[in-house]
Specification:
The protein is an alpha/beta fold and about 375 residues long. It has helices spanning about 15-25, 45, 60-65, 75-80, 115-120, 120-125, 130-150, 160-170, 210-220, 235-240, 250-260, 275-280, 295-300, 320-330, 340-345, 350-370, and strands at about 5, 30-35, 50-55, 85-90, 105-110, 155-160, 175-180, 200, 225, 245-250, 265, 285-290, 310-315. Helices cover about 40% and strands about 15% of the residues. The strands form three sheets. It has a seven-stranded parallel beta sheet, sandwiched between helices.
Length: about 375
């Protein structure tokens, strides 16, 4: 069986790329199609696959400013020649799902989310600028029309969470089965903790709400370490007090050690799923996060654990005051969180479980076609 894996772009190893990595293990003979590739920033497992790129790869300044070419993404993804492939799997948070699979191929989209930029996070990405809205408005109207139209090419939608399945139903009027993304629980595991700090692991972009966490920790005077890079880094550093440290990008070994040593992971953003909180839980550490989106599906909250061991604190609103309330609640009840119980909860999201569920779903689809 000839398999194509279509991914939006490959310029780092975030949650979506961890999913792609697992699919590369599941389909080792597959070929990857992606708009843009920075080979040095991806894992060896993905790097060893045959990778095809689009014309976006050769446009000026594409490596740093590829999002400026957003209106060209639909055309670029549609131009991939997928003739001869029996199975096309798109891992999509932007335009990958809009690829043109052969008529007789099984076309599956594992959807991270419908495109955030055009549907519900415009201002977080582009700001509240009248001139920018005037210029981008027609492009975004076109992208929304294209997004809905191209969703009809997908034979089967799979979603990373119930939150995303609801968006797929609302925007595309399609049903999607949920298969939770993989967490490498073999690599991320508990160890003796020696740290007295709290931890954020996040891209430094506006919608992650790291600024609100910084304000909260400035008020509380508690130590906070922040792992990640992004366009908001300079502004966030100016805002941070002396007890807040920015560590930049960290390798996996250092990241695991930080998870293991922290008192708790802070996760202030609204997330589609959130692999980072599960990596922290796999290391036995609790999470203090917003009680909405993906976190509501992956955290057993203190106070409403229903006889189960809690794995975190969920605060209600995306405000500094609500976050401070969550941190204070954690400080008052820190001894209630058991490292081993938190780890056990995370194991249900293990990489091997993801691959087995995904494999069975593909087999089920092919069996259905035969009937």
């Amino acid at each position: 069986m000839k398999v194509a894996l279509v991914h939006d772009w490959l310029n780092g190893m975030r949650g979506g790329e961890r999913v792609l990595e697992a699919l590369c293990e599941l389909f080792p003979e597959a070929e990857i199609f992606t708009l843009l590739l920075e080979r040095e920033k991806i894992s060896p497992r993905i790097r060893e696959m045959k990778i095809h790129t689009s014309f976006i790869q050769n446009l000026p300044f594409a490596r740093k400013h590829y999002r400026n070419y957003l209106p060209f993404f639909p055309r670029a993804i549609e131009r991939f020649d997928l003739t001869g492939y029996d199975l096309v799997i798109s891992t999509s948070h932007a335009v990958a799902k809009g690829c043109r699979a052969p008529e007789n191929a099984v076309n599956v989209c594992y959807c991270f989310t419908p495109m955030r930029y055009i549907w519900f996070l415009y201002e977080e990405y582009f700001g509240d600028n009248f001139l920018k809205k005037l210029v981008l408005g027609p492009s975004f109207a076109y992208l929304r029309r294209w997004d809905i139209r191209s969703s009809r090419r997908v034979g089967y939608f799979l979603a990373i969470s119930k939150t995303v399945a609801d968006r797929i139903a609302r925007i595309y009027n399609r049903e999607a089965e949920v298969i939770y993304p993989p967490v490498d629980t073999d690599f991320f595991h508990p160890a003796e903790s020696s740290g007295d700090f709290f931890l954020i692991v996040s891209a430094l972009v506006p919608y992650k709400r790291v600024d609100r966490a910084i304000t909260a920790f400035n008020r509380l005077g508690l130590p906070l370490k922040i792992v990640g890079t992004g366009p908001s880094a300079a502004r966030l550093k100016e805002k941070a007090g002396p007890q807040i440290r920015f560590l930049g990008r960290q390798g996996d070994d250092n990241l695991r050690r930080l998870y293991q040593d922290c008192r708790a992971l802070i996760f202030p953003g609204l997330e589609d799923f959130g692999i980072v909180p599960l990596e922290a839980q796999a290391c036995g550490r609790p999470v203090i996060g917003l009680g909405a989106g993906g976190l509501a599906e992956t955290i057993i909250p203190w106070r409403s654990a229903g006889g189960r061991a809690p794995t975190g604190i969920l605060f209600a609103k995306q405000t500094v005051e609500s976050l401070i309330g969550g941190i204070n609640l954690f400080l008052e009840n820190e001894t209630c969180f058991d490292r081993d119980a938190i780890r056990v909860h995370a194991l249900q999201f293990d990489r091997k479980i993801f691959k087995e569920k995904f494999r069975k779903k593909i087999e089920e689809i092919f069996e259905r076609i035969k009937l």
